[in-house]
Amino acid sequence: MAVLNRASVKKVRQALKDAKVKVRFRELKSPASGVKTAARALKVEPGAVVQSNLYFIGEQPVLVLVAGDHKCLADALPRCLALDDAGEVRRASKYEDRKYTGYERGGIAPMMIDLPTVIDVSLKRFETLYVPGGDPHAVFTSDCKTLNRLTGGIISYAIAAPAD
Predict the structure, then answer these.
(1) What are the domain boundaries of the chain?
(2) How far apart are CA 17 and CA 46, in angstroms?
């Protein structure tokens, strides 16, 4: 079965269609779970590849969208999302990724997920972003403004820093 015909990807495609957002889907031969691998396959800078990751602040799951050449500053998440007293911050397990988002790690499409979402402001550097499309082998194109509209997320200067 072609990746773009998988149920999880079809769900994302339908949501984008319903939101009247025109995007281009790309199928990757290797999973997008590795930013450098995905960037090479797409022939783009790693920063243009969006990392869509689930974290927990105490018991509250939150979605974090970070540029591929940046790392999440997890300790900054509670303040950005006004969850200062919610508890410790930790990255979700693969099981929790699936349970709370409906997608497996590397393929977490950031919309249709009713969770607090924070977006790395450095994504604005790129005219075209490559966003997980419901499967680790699928991405779709977007820009930061559209991504913000689709997720209802908060754009933050404080949640990411250059990886190197």
Answers:
(1) 3-162
(2) 27
Q: Nearest 5°: phi and psi at 92?
A: -70, 155
Report the distance separating Cα 72 and Cα 159, nearest Å. 6
DSSP labels, 63-80:
EEEEETTEEE-GGGHHHH
Splitting the chain (164 residues) into consecutive groups of 10 residues, what average pLDDT does each group show? 87 95 89 80 96 97 98 96 93 96 94 93 98 95 96 96 90
* CATH architecture assigned to 3-162: Alpha-Beta Complex (3.90)
- Residue 53 region by backbone torsions, left for phi larger than 0, else alpha for psi between -120 and 50, else beta: beta
Six-digit token string for 123? 């994504």
Largest CA distance in the chain: 46
Neighbours of 124 (CB within 10 A): 16
Give the global pTM. Answer: 0.94
What's the CA gap between 87 and 94, in Å, rounded? 21
